[in-house]
Amino acid sequence: MTRSRIALIGLLALAVVFGPLAGTVPAQQSQGIFIPLLVYRTGPYAPSGIPIANGFVDYFTLLNERDGGINGVKLVWEECETQYDTKQGVECYERLKGKNPVLVNPYSTGITYTLIPKAAVDKVVVFSMGYGMTAAADGRWFPWVFSFPTTYWSQASAVIRYMGQQEGGLEKLKGKKIAHIYHNSPYGKEANPTLEELSRKYGFELTLLAVDHPGQEQKATWLQVRRLNPDWIFVSGWGVMNQVAVKEAAATGVKMDHLIGNWWSANDSDVVPAGEGAKGYKGATFHAPGTNFRVFQDIVKHVYDKGKGAAKKEDMGAPLYNRGVVNAMLSAEAIRTAMGKYGNKVLTGEQVRWGFENFNLTEQRLEQLGMKGFTHPIKVSCEDHEGNGPVLIQQWDGKQWNLVSEWIQPMRDVVRPKVEAAAIEEGKKLNYTQRDCSKEK
Amino acid sequence: MIYRETGQFKSSYASDQAIFPIVQDRIFVLLAVAAAFVMPPLVASEYWLQAVLIPLLIYALAALGLNLLTGYAGQVSLGTGGFMAVGAYAAFKLSTSFPQVNIVIVFLLSGLCAALVGLVFGIPSLRIKGFYLAVATLAAQFFLIWLFNKVPWFVNYASSGTITAPTRTMFGVMVTGPQSSAGARYVMAMALVALFALVAKNLVRGRVGRSWMAIRDRDIAAEIIGVRPMRTKLLAFAISSFYCGVAGAEFVFLYLGSAETTAFDINLSFLVLFMVIIGGLGSVLGSFLGAAFIVLVPIFLTNAPHLVGLPLPVALQKQIELMVFGALIIFFLIVEPNGLARLWQVAKEKLRLWPFPH
Question: Which CATH code is given to the segment(s) A28-151+290-388+422-439?
């Protein structure tokens, strides 16, 4: 037998024996609250995944450095690369589950759908902030899932309201053509039912155009757009799909200020590759872009100046970086809420779930956090895990994003009944029963 | 010394034609299968079962299916992901439409659905061969995924297009759904794989398998000696797709719990094809070894830096993993182009002579 063959067999044996063992190495009982971070810093979704992960890590580092954690209890986290792939996400979740996580941010609608049934069994909160399964916003059916500050359905209705405002009233939308260009995945499809219902209600003509994963090839889609010549275009893209969409839109000659991305489709990395052509492109968001808030000065002082930053200082302020900060802040505040009841110690998933359900972020608290005007107050209840968040519209001026609207309220009267109906349907699939919220305390 | 067949006399045709004619082989395989059934659910952690062993078994079943088609019948296919998707969506439709039907029967029926679809997409194989056939099966992959994305009936009109495995029991034990234990799902997957591996082993050493190999080695010669190419090739496509279909159903029901079409994209087809090539074309054992290689090595590479206490950033770690894994595949194909199964065979031959090689 040749030497290389022996080497080969040796390698294989090693991999087969030690590979999975490595995954089960017991975590050294860390002193702190453990939060797994499912990130994607590689692959076609990395342009979107990197800034979010950086924002997240920087805010947690800030809490540990400045305050010694939450109320003195350190935060411990570990990143795991998923490449936005459901299978790898499941592997990550199972690997990190051994470290007693209290909450998980899947950052992928596909992974969220897979984790929702598991998390309830494992007693881990699924915090899918503004993504995931919209139906899970009905807390009576999904006690372990939280999607505040808002959902895809609320966003879609708010964007339609914004289009109406621009046209001079929602009734003016009658006869207008609106196209929805979406990532052909559970994520992209999520807004469709709401848009269809609103199209019936307001009489606009809705065209749904799917773009297949990963979204680098969109020529056919934009050819259809050219033929259709819609008045407004709504984009639900992610990762590399966004930059391609913006570039194609600019090349097709679409009016850029009539092109609105959802909040996952409006980041610096999405518009910069299109250069001048991207000017005027709009996007939805639920927090301000930029760094004119005290919390960012704190991050610079306590994180970057100590050389502990996850990114470059200049990358702060991009919408998705700020989204990571908001997500980390909401997670931390929910844990803080739970500490108010259970004491300042390492909490369990069940205790943190209570914190999420009784979450109440006031204007005053935002001020204390150095985030006044950065995002809006949120109150969560047992029934409502969405918090009914309003939406902002931001616009790219070629250099940076600027807010161009006030807070736009979603059409709660349309969305909430749909959420409740969908919750019954999705809940039944999982053999869930409806909780009686009056018995919760 | 231990592994020697001296003194084992075959006194009947049946014993001469047994799957494992050598006693030691028989004992070893029986023990290994028994251990595979009993050990993991008892000792393995949930991470092992859920993230390593269950996908390993499911991939092995899919690789086995593709190996029947590509390894034995010589028809290259890139449609594995599509056929697995057929199995998965059929199982979802069947189990939600007929909740009272036993889940194993659902799996088998969804395998049959996949077999029918495989039969249709196998028709081009009568006219085209090799790379051209690979391209034709690629069409199956893209068409099927498009179909499941496009027609909401397949997902029971769920707005997200996601299919979720409902909870089902076997002998009073939950085997699918979120509340089922990983151990139960593992035993279920193991039972199906063991059963289908046995069937495959018998298929390939019988008349059907011999006609497949005849077609693979020289189709004109096979036709002259009386093998009907149409029937043989289509049978290979049907049976292969049946295996892939059952694997696809297990993929959603026993492994992921819920899935959408991206889980069955072209990458999955390539992954299974790599398993077959690395494991060994035309070998039942090879399908298992190939699946083990493709599933375990990346997990090892991901976890290795942690194991030695080297905390690399995750992105760098992923890039390294991809590079090392790619290099390993190339290295491996150069050193042993016949796959892992061949290594095993060589080892067995050495063992027969051991410790007196001359």
Answer: 3.40.50.2300
**Alpha carbon distance A204, B290 (integer Å):** 54
Check whether B147 has a pLDDT greater than 70.
yes
CB B272 within 8 A of CB B78: no
Instruction: Using a CB–CB cutoff of 8 Å, tell me whether B324 touches chain A.
Output: no
At residue B5 the predicted structure's pLDDT band, cuts being 50, 70 and 90, is: confident
Give yes or no for a contact between A288 and A318, defined as CB atoms under 8 angstroms apart: no
Q: Which residue has the higher pLDDT, B205 or B311?
A: B205
CB contacts, 8 Å: A2 with chain B? 335
Q: Tell me what pLDDT residue A158 has.
A: 93
Q: Is B291 a member of any domain?
A: no
Of the candidate ranges A20-29, A190-199, A204-213, B124-133, the one whose mean pLDDT is the lowest: A20-29
Q: Look at chain B and report how many structural domains it folds into.
A: 1
Measured distance CA(B192)–CA(B188) in Å, rounded: 6
Q: Is residue B102 part of a domain?
A: yes
Place B83 in a pLDDT band, splitting at 50, 70 and 90: very high
Residue A315 has what pLDDT? Answer: 85
Geometric angle at alpha carbon B115, from B112 and B119, rounded to 5°: 145
| Pick from A61-70, A274-283, A424-433, B91-100: least confident | A424-433
Helix H or strand E segment including B303? helix B284-307
Residue B219 lies in a domain: yes
Residues of chain A with CATH 3.40.50.2300: 28-151+290-388+422-439, 152-287+390-414
Indicate if the alpha-carbon torsion angle A414, A416, A422, A428 is positive or negative: negative
Chain A contact present for B32, CB below 8 A:
no
Question: Chain-centre distance of CA B264, in angstroms?
Answer: 14
Percent over 90 (pLDDT), chain A? 54
End-to-end Cα spacing for chain B = 13
Name the pLDDT band for B297 (thresholds 50, 70, 90).
confident
Question: CB contact, 8 Å: B283 with chain A?
Answer: no
Contacts of B257 (CB under 8 A, 6+ apart): A114, A117, A118, B164, B165, B177, B178
Q: Under CATH, which architecture does the A152-287+390-414 domain have?
A: 3-Layer(aba) Sandwich (3.40)
CB contact (8 A) between residue B149 and residue A190: no
- Give the domain extent around B146: 20-262
Q: Do B299 and A9 touch (CB under 8 A)?
A: no
Residues of A in contact with B331 (CB under 8 A): 8
| Residue B194 domain flag | yes
User: Nearest CB to B300: which of A19, A97, A113?
Assistant: A19
pLDDT band with cut points at 50, 70 and 90 for residue B343: confident
